[in-house]
Amino acid sequence: MGDEMRILSLLPSCTQIVLGLSLREYLVGVTHECEIDGNSAEIEGVERVTSSVIPIGTTSQKDIDLAVKTSVSSGISLYTIDEDKFARVNPSIILTQNLCSVCAPTKKEVQRVSDVAYPDSCAHHGLNIVSLEPTCLDEVADTFMTVADECQVHDRGIGLKAKFYSELYKVENATNRIRENLDLRKPTLMLLEWLDPPFDGGHWVPDMVEIAGCIPPDSFGGKKRRSLERSWEDIVSADPEVILVACCGFDLERNFKDATETLFDADSEVSKMFQSLRATRNGRVFAVDANQYFAQPAPQLSMGAALMARLAYDNDDRAVSLLNDALGDLIPAEGAGWKRLKPKVVEGFKETKVKDIESVWELHDEAVKNQQLHYTDPETGLFVFTSLAHKRRGRCCGSGCRHCPYGHENVSLEKRSEFIVQASFLNKRRADGFAKHRYVVFFSTGKDSFLALRQWIALKRREDKMGWEEVLDRIVLLTSFDSTTKRIAHQDTTIDDARRQAKALDLSLLAVPLHPGKDYVRSIDEALDLVRTQQGAETFSLVFGDLRLELIKDWRDKYLGHLGILEYPLFGVDYDELFQDLQLSGVPCTITSREFGKDLHERSCQEVYVGREFDAELRKACVECGWDDFGEDGEFHTLARVWEVDSRRALGLCGETRAFQQ
């Protein structure tokens, strides 16, 4: 390397490599897009020798794409090289590329200008044209050595390459650790390299996706390929969990602006389709500085991989904290390297509140009947995937979709109770077996359903000579609740209360959200289908805690009888026997709600109030004021605090259960 070395970089990534090799003093010319020390304006001693035929900053993506395609077909370059400036900088080394005619002047164009400047011979003038054409991360790293060797700084090239790999390994190791330690699976991630029309990222991007602990959508895999134009139907079908808007050559602000206008604000079919994606509904779409971290095959790609990992696991606070600790400054800061894109409506896990919700289920059924993958939500105007679309995917996407046929099995148990919109297991017994016949106990969290559970276990052990583990393995608690409020009808308890009970008792819990306008029997039938598919059940005993109301029992017999064998282990049992069994369990039961109908108000019982325990004194007070002392007429409801007692005693596994006479 001598003082006569004069480097002309005709590609922003080449400029970054030169700077990474500490060769700034030898840089005499760059493109109009290159940044030096964060500066894209004129820099003393460095000529900007290129210009663009189209004003990129003010031209739409659609028009840019049209210009690019016209350029390719006509052979006319989008970039011009100022021949006077070229001659003035008098380079000895020209760094260019032949990978993409869209990104910068091609080697052919550079050769043409060189021939004009030096008509006798470039070689005679000591000019060497170096073309870089990396297609993957390994080849990107190799270009560091190519430039270093050409500039006679071999050791610097080794150092830059080693630093690059060290940072990539750091990202890969960090994502591996968080998945292992937090038991997380790899999310599907798509990088959109262009929006109008949509292109997905190719070349080195698939390598970055893998290093960042992600996988591409099923239909978008494959390495060492160019970026490919896609249709929005392709993207809807792929339905990635995370999307990065990283349009080639654009900084953060331009990507954020274009994504907002194209994908979120426009009242178009594209906007509606994009907002139907689970990434959009779950707030996992991000605009990034593509120019700095993704588009240029330069050392900053390691920061792009770190940013990709950070955004891919953004939905888990624990993972974010661990990644920040492990990667530190390698992750570009929010607002500088990335911004979250927010849709008009983020449905996420939560049920859309539609004015006429019944029409939603009718629309869904009609769409499935017609083999359609989605329908339009009548209130939001967004596309909603049908169960048919989810079945074609072949697995739960983990987003809590309205028509998920897999019981939200890939939504974490911690989040299911909060976001559930379809029947789903909120707890599974540790030793859960696969018995063909299952005991489904309708469980409302109160004393009656708890006593029915105890009595059913006792009956199976006593009459069928079954061991207690075998009985418990067959039991599924079924709790229905309001899909919007998450509360259990009448009880004034929540589905989280039921989950807490199921965990304390180590029993499977099947939660069934009830939607206005959707038939109750249909909801229960679909829930039982989940027990069939996930637990191998073929037949059911449906166990209820009804005590005396013939009307309710008759309704169940009429409308639920076709679903299984209906059992009423408490029906007609004397209340004193029930109370004695409750005392044997040791489980305290607290009043959670009190009904004030017309008749009740006229003879109100002041001893019944929310927060009081159900005990002998309360029963006595109820009788004195003419109430049913077990609240069978709806006077009050309770919560069985099973977590305060050893589960074996609570379930009567140690002999503390009365044999009822019906």
UniProtKB/TrEMBL annotation:
Protein name: Fe/B12 periplasmic-binding domain-containing protein
InterPro entries in UniProt: ABC_transptr_periplasmic_BD, DUF5522, Rossmann-like_a/b/a_fold, Vitamin_B12-ABC_binding
Species lineage: Eukaryota, Rhodophyta, Stylonematophyceae, Stylonematales, Stylonemataceae
A Pfam family annotated for this UniProt entry: DUF5522
Organism of provenance: Rhodosorus marinus
Span of domain Fe/B12 periplasmic-binding: 6-319
PROSITE patterns: FE_B12_PBP (PS50983)
